[in-house]
Amino acid sequence: MNPRRPQERESIATSWGHHLARAAACGVLLLICLGGLRMLFDARLPAKWFDCTAPLVFGLCTATAVLTSPAWRRRPSLPAARRDRQQTASTGRGLRWVAAGVTVGIYLLVVFGAQLRYPPWNAAPDWFVLWVWLKLIAAGSVAFGVALLSICVRRTKLLALLFVVELLLGAGVWVTNYNWPAWFRYHVWSIDYTPDLLGPLHLWTTVAHVAVGSLSLGVSLSVTLWAWGD
């Protein structure tokens, strides 16, 4: 076994971290441009692109922090890691793919949420229904993946907590936008509530939902990187 292999692997990780840092810097510049277009022209398309791009930039920052961290450099050497993988090969490989799927699913939730927040003025109602169902299906799939990771992986407690908070905030965003669902008011609890669009509750709930979604994406990406790097 080549004794320089761990050092070479560390060098590759550091190089990737530097590349990701440069990409994150370019992403910040792109966000500044999109934010300026949104403020100047009050256009929905730049706002939609901003909401889809900002979590990616946060993910790049997360990946940079992981790959350049001292903890990443202190990982077990290649022979030790290989012995661990041989002991739990099938289970470990499956969990890596689950973690990657959860990360992709959380980003899809961000994209679907942006479609719901900034629909085109001339969009047909069927598009809104489609985005809602896609978001619900993605949320259910991610919830299943997060639950599976929480049972099998110790690093996912924060991810599970953030995702639960994100789901609760997502329900709050729906209520502050569209009121309580009819089935809930008729069969569970009759609540006299009128949505106040652009009111404090609506704004803060939406902002918190978007922020926690980005945090969930960053934590999920960190879990995925550690799952594939161990």
Report on this structure.
The chain is mainly alpha-helical. Helix content is 83%, strand content 0%. The chain is built from nine helices and no strands. It has helices at 5-41, 44-67, 70-73, 78-87, 89-117, 125-152, 157-178, 182-187, 200-229. Helix 2 packs parallel to helix 9. Residues 77-90 have low confidence and may be disordered.
Major sheet description: none
Overall shape: it is globular
What level of helicity do the residues show? Answer: over 70%
Number of strand segments: 0
Q: What is the rounded distance between the termini?
A: 18 Å
The pLDDT mean sits at: 84
Give the secondary structure arrangement, pairings included.
Layout: H1 5-41, H2 44-67, H3 70-73, H4 78-87, H5 89-117, H6 125-152, H7 157-178, H8 182-187, H9 200-229
